[in-house]
Specification:
279 residues; alpha+beta; four-stranded mixed sheet; 5 helices; 15 strands; Putative vancomycin resistance protein; Glycopeptide_resist_protein; Vancomycin_resist_VanW
């Protein structure tokens, strides 16, 4: 049995703990010698090299849909400081360095968030939808992932069945960030936009390149552990030559293991108890 944290025993200490963590979180970044991307431009760079979209509302959460609508409100607030952001050579993008002041004029509404492995409603819930989208975009350009954290539990099916599994990036201000560094000689720029149904992510670059990326799953499987169902899946990235459309290379990026918190489709093969995994 896991030991309970102090804030679980004494919930009234949670606001104090959050303030403390955020203070040290940003102090650490101030002194870490990274050059964080902060400049924005209303004019976008000449070459669009990748774009994607994600459905805004998920009807499969089991919660009142008002929390999905609140999520969209929160996403629009958080996307404003990200839209148009430029990542120059040698600069690092940090989700929280950019988004930390998004509430300056309007406050976040209550949305869904996983806290202590439980899906609850909190102010600002749903911002992982934006970090997930950004991570997916970053996987398709030659930026270096510096910090990324997977969700420990997948509470409901993805609304996009064609999206590979485990290409998410959970964030929690004061604890978890999404960071990428530009170790290239190229300059990148992010665009985030919305319509009634989707959030769109696009990334621009100042010079045309002769190749692109494709992100795929390998070795996907499900297994039981302690009465719970887990998924293990590897995420690989292929480099594609734009002229021939041939795969130049394929590299394993990472392998994730996470709990499945919903009923899998009938007929899904689930292996028996696995001794080699400690949750």
């Amino acid at each position: 049995m896991k030991r309970k944290r102090v804030t679980q025993l004494f919930p009234f200490l949670i606001p104090v703990r959050k303030t403390q963590r955020k203070l040290f979180f940003y102090i650490k970044m101030y002194f870490d010698r990274n050059h964080y991307a902060k400049a924005k431009s209303p004019e976008f760079l000449p070459y669009s090299i990748y774009e994607t979209k994600s459905k805004l509302l998920n009807e499969n959460t089991g919660f009142d849909m008002k929390y999905q609508e609140n999520k969209v409100f929160n996403l629009r607030l958080a996307a404003e400081p990200v839209n148009g952001l430029i990542i120059r050579p040698g600069e690092t993008f940090s989700f929280w360095q950019v988004v930390r002041y998004a509430e300056r004029n309007e406050r976040y509404k209550y949305g869904l968030c996983v806290v202590n492995d439980e899906l609850i409603t909190v102010p600002g819930g749903g911002l992982c939808h934006l970090s997930n989208l950004l991570f997916w975009v970053f996987l398709h350009v030659p930026l270096t992932i510096v910090e990324r954290h997977p969700h420990g539990i997948k509470d409901f099916p993805s609304p996009d069945e064609d999206e590979p599994d485990s290409v998410d990036a959970t964030i929690n201000e004061g604890w978890l960030d999404l960071k990428v560094r530009n170790n290239t000689s190229l300059t990148f720029q992010i665009e985030i936009s919305f319509d009634e149904s989707f959030i769109y992510g696009r990334i621009f670059v100042d010079q045309a390149e002769g190749y692109s990326y494709e992100v795929i799953n390998r070795d996907k499987s499900f297994f039981k552990k302690g009465g719970k169902t887990f998924e293990r899946v590897s995420v690989c990235r292929q480099v594609i030559d734009n002229k021939s459309q041939q795969v130049i290379s394929e590299n394993l990026l990472y392998t994730d293991i996470f709990e499945i918190g919903y009923a899998l489709p009938e007929g899904t093969v689930i292996e028996g108890e696995e001794d080699g995994y400690d949750d």
